[in-house]
Structures are given as C-alpha cells and as structure tokens.
C-alpha cells in the first residue's frame, strides 16, 4: 500500500482507526544485532518503501515517522511544526520525557518568538569566531588528558579518561561551573538521558540540577566572572530559575553529545582501518572526516519530536493539526538521494548537508564548539597513539542502546 | 549573483560562515549573520550556493 492510499483510507475511518493500524512501527526501534552503527532495519525499510509512516510509542499512542532527508528538513524547517511539548499530541519517547514537561521548559522545547529571544542571548557565545579562539585551550586540555591517561600505562577506558572529561572541562569553563562538581552533574545527566529511568528519578535529577544551577547563578550575583552564567545574570533580564534552566540545557547538551561522538568515532575508525589509515596519512582530512562521522553515526538517534499546529502535507501524506511527528535524523543521514553509498563511512565524502545537528531554528547552537572539540580530540588521539587498538573483543563493547544519545558506555583501548 | 540575508530569521549557528567564510560573518554582539560581500565574484558562487542550501533557517536568498 502506498502512503497516499493509506492516508486516504484512514481519512475515511478517522483518527481512531489510524491509531490502531496494525503495521505501525514500534519506536524506539532496536538496531540489528550485528550492525551497531546502522539505524534499525525497520526504519531503513520505511525510508525506502513508505517514507512517512505511522509509528507506535511506548504508551500505545501513535505518531508519524519521517525518514527521508528532504522531508526531515521540510518538517524541521517549517514553523507549522511546534517543538512545544505542552501541546497536545506532542510525541514523547519515554515516560521520563513526558515527566519533564511539568517543570521549567528550556528554549529547545519552545517556539519562536520566545525561543528566538532566549536563544539569541547565547548565539554570540557559541559563534564560529569565539569557538575557533578556544582551540589552544581545547588543545591543551586534550594533551593533558592524554598525558595522564598514558602515564605509566598501556591500556585505559577512553570514555572516562578522555572522551567524557574533555567536553565536560570545556563546557564548565565556558559556563563558569566548577569542574569539581562533574561527578554530580554527569550522574544527573545520565539519568535524564537514559530511556530506562523511572519518571520519579528523572524528576528528582532535573530538580537537583535546577537547584544546583540556581544557587550557582545566585553566587555569580556576588562574585561575577566572565562565564556564560555570570553574563546571563549581568544582563538582568532573567531570574535565577530561567538562568538555571538554560545552564542545565547547555551543561547536558555540552558534554554528553561530544563525549559520545568522540568515543564512538574512535571505535568506528578502529573498525574501518582503511579510513583510519587515510586520516592518519593526511590529517588535513580531519574537518571533513568529522562531518562524515557526524553523518554516519548520528548519535541523536531516536528522532526529533514535533507536533503539527495545522494540517501540513509531508512527502505526499497529510499530517493533521495535533498529530505528532518524529524526524529520524539517522535515517535522513543515510538517504541515498543525498549521500550515495551512505551506508559506508568515507572520510573523503562531502557530508556537509547532514542533519546530525538537526535543522530549522532549533539546529544545534553548540555545533561550532562540537566541531572544534571533535576535530582536536580525534586529531590529537590519532597523532599521540599510533598503536591505538581495542582492548576487548568488539562484541563486548557496551553500546548505549538504552540512551537518548547513542554511543558506548565504555571503550577499553590499548596503545 | 546578489545575496540577501534575513537577520530576523537567522538562528546564528554559523553554517554559512563555514561554507563561505569570505562572504559571511557573524555580528560580534549576537552572532547573527552579516554579509561581507553581497555581490561576490564567480569563483565564490558555488560556496555561496552551498551556504544557502545548508542554512537551517532559510535566511539566505540569492538573486541573479
Ligand atoms: C556532536 C555533538 C552534538 C550533537 C550531535 C548535537 C545535536 C543536536 C541536535 C540534533 C539538536 C536539535 C534538537 C531539536 O531540534 O529538537 C541540538 C540542539 C541543541 N544543542 Fe546540540 N549537539 C551537539 C553538541 C552540542 C554542544 C557541545 C552544545 C553546547 C553547549 C549543544 C547545545 C545545544 C543546544 C543549546 C540546543 C538547542 C537549540 C535550540 O533549541 O535552539 N549541543 N543539538
Ligand atoms: S547559516 Fe543561516 S541561520 Fe546560520 S548563521 Fe548563516 S544565515 Fe544565520
């Protein structure tokens, strides 16, 4: 059945029947056992056969799954699709996700003009020039972490010793958050991002982070510095609660994402020795290689949620006002129409049109920082450890199937 | 080719600056796009077209 036929049939039988469509795909869909780098086979199949398709969520509710590059960009770029999770019909991937809606929203879950007003308070802090100027500092941090990791040892967990502390140190520096508290916020982030956390746990972690950052904002009123939190305080437009919400978003988005991209990219390169060799031979490929790894791995892997505020046609299907949509970035980034041979990693590919950072007005604010961190982390790692290898059999690497941001829980390596 | 960048629409993540650094920049005060060269030489047209294509906010329009 084609998508157009099915929508017509559903239009006749009404939304109740649509919810009960037996063929609906259950999300989050599991990846195939042998291919931990590829999107779930059902989602790949959907993109080829029925690119805008029905999906069933954990609570039995249903939404649309948008899988092609063109359609994903169209939805995320269209103001008729809202990112406001308080709207009825908004698709939640977990019970914990729904739990968070009751507390203070951050601008990632707001629409313009409020979203733009808040985001613009931060755009200068993350612009290209500023982040490029951070290179020497990020380089120093990378070298120091590797000095420590390799000191008298020949094996370590790359996640705890390098991939996680690097972006954590950097985002703490930018925000003006004391790095000594990293165990506290890393654990709260883990709970917030785990698909398995109980709703109560999620709410408690959210509140603890909120209180912590609220107190931090208050302390900056008395002892200002040049970090982002302090500058938001100095603007005088936001109260401690608003600043804490923004800080929470930046703190979580700022360390979990880059950490997972670093470790997963390393593993991917080790599994693709020909690509690794190309990169080692010609380090000038690093910028393009990072874009290709962002595309190929797409660690924000569960689909970005939006809800239609009007009837909108997407890829030939009518999405009704009030219906939820998940935009599967990982599927869009494998779309053959844009990335021929996209199931293979090719560090020489022009991958700039990938949507690993999303698309539309919510497209990742921190992408200039993520790029600088990833380019430096990978270049430094490969240069300093020419004998880098996996220290356990590949089958034993613990993948983060259970997390909103994909990656590995640990990466035992030797050199 | 003539470039127009809509500063109201721009969300400031700087993709255009990466794609065509000779043509686009970001304002110091808020990271919003500024066009350095609204009628760039032909050698830069491909880069400018790429910038317009990857702009997430559809803020860059090209005429001529
Ligand atoms: C490899 C690293 C990263 C990836 C793959 C990534 C991915 C994403 C994606 C897909 C979105 C869009 C969410 C949506 O539209 O619903 C997003 C938004 C966002 N990201 Fe990132 N991100 C990364 C690193 C960072 C870093 C380092 C920061 C720094 C603080 C950051 C801060 C943000 C913020 C604040 C938003 C919300 C923007 C808005 O709603 O306007 N991200 N990110
Ligand atoms: S790519 Fe578009 S949204 Fe991003 S800075 Fe340039 S004009 Fe603004």
TrEMBL record, chain B:
Residue ranges constituting the 4Fe-4S ferredoxin-type domain according to the UniProt record: 1-29
Gene3D superfamilies according to UniProt: 3.30.70.20
Record carries keyword Lyase: no
UniProt keyword list: 3Fe-4S, Electron transport, Iron, Iron-sulfur, Metal-binding, Transport
Tagged with keyword Transport: yes
Membrane-spanning ranges: none
GO molecular function: 3 iron, 4 sulfur cluster binding; electron transfer activity; iron ion binding
Cofactor requirement: [3Fe-4S] cluster
PROSITE patterns noted in UniProt: 4FE4S_FER_2 (PS51379)
Cited InterPro entries: 3Fe4S_ferredoxin, 4Fe4S_Fe-S-bd, Fe-S_cluster_ET
Superkingdom of the organism of origin: Bacteria
Role noted for this protein: Ferredoxins are iron-sulfur proteins that transfer electrons in a wide variety of metabolic reactions.
Name used for this protein in its record: Ferredoxin
Organism: Streptomyces lydicus
């Amino acid at each position: 059945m084609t998508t157009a036929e099915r929508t017509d049939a559903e239009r006749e039988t009404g939304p109740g029947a649509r919810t009960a469509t037996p063929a609906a795909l259950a999300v989050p869909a599991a990846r195939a056992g042998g291919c931990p780098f590829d999107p779930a086979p059902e989602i790949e199949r959907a993109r080829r056969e029925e690119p805008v398709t029905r999906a069933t969520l954990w609570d039995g509710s249903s939404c649309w799954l948008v899988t092609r590059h063109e359609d994903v960009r169209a939805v995320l770029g269209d103001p008729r699709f809202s990112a406001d999770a308080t709207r009825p019909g908004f698709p939640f991937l977990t019970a914990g996700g729904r739990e968070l809606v009751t507390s203070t929203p951050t601008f990632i879950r707001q629409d313009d003009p409020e979203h733009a007003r808040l985001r613009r308070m931060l755009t200068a802090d993350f612009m290209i020039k500023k982040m490029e100027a951070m290179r020497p500092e990020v380089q120093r941090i990378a070298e120091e972490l590797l000095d420590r990791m390799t000191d008298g040892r020949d094996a370590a967990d790359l996640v705890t010793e390098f991939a996680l502390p690097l972006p954590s140190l950097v985002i703490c520096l930018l925000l003006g958050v004391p790095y000594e508290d990293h165990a506290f916020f890393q654990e709260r982030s883990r709970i917030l991002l785990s698909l398995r956390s109980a709703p109560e746990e999620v709410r408690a972690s959210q509140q603890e982070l909120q209180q912590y950052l609220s107190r931090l904002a208050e302390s900056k009123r008395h002892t200002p510095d040049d970090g982002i939190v302090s500058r938001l305080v100095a603007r005088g437009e936001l109260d401690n609660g608003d600043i804490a919400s923004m800080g929470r978003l930046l703190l979580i988005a700022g360390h979990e994402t880059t950490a997972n991209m670093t470790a997963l990219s390393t593993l991917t390169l080790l599994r693709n020795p020909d690509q690794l060799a190309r990169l080692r031979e010609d380090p000038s490929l690093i910028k393009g290689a990072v874009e290709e790894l962002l595309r190929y791995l797409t660690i924000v892997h569960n689909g970005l949620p939006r809800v239609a505020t009007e009837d909108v046609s997407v890829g030939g299907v009518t999405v009704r006002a009030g219906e939820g949509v998940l935009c599967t970035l990982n599927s869009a980034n494998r779309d053959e129409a844009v990335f021929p041979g996209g199931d293979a990693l090719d560090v020489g590919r022009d991958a700039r049109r990938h949507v690993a950072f999303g698309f539309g007005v919510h497209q990742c604010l921190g992408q200039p920082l993520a790029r600088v961190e990833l380019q430096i982390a990978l270049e430094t790692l490969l240069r300093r450890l020419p004998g880098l290898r996996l220290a356990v059999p590949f089958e034993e690497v613990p993948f983060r199937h259970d997390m909103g941001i994909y990656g590995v829980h640990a990466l035992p390596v030797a050199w | 080719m003539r470039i127009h960048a809509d500063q109201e629409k721009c969300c400031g993540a700087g993709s255009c600056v990466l794609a065509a650094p000779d043509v686009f920049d970001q304002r110091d005060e808020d990271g919003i796009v500024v066009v350095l060269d609204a009628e760039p030489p032909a050698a830069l047209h491909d880069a400018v077209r790429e910038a317009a294509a990857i702009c997430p906010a559809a803020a860059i329009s090209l005429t001529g």
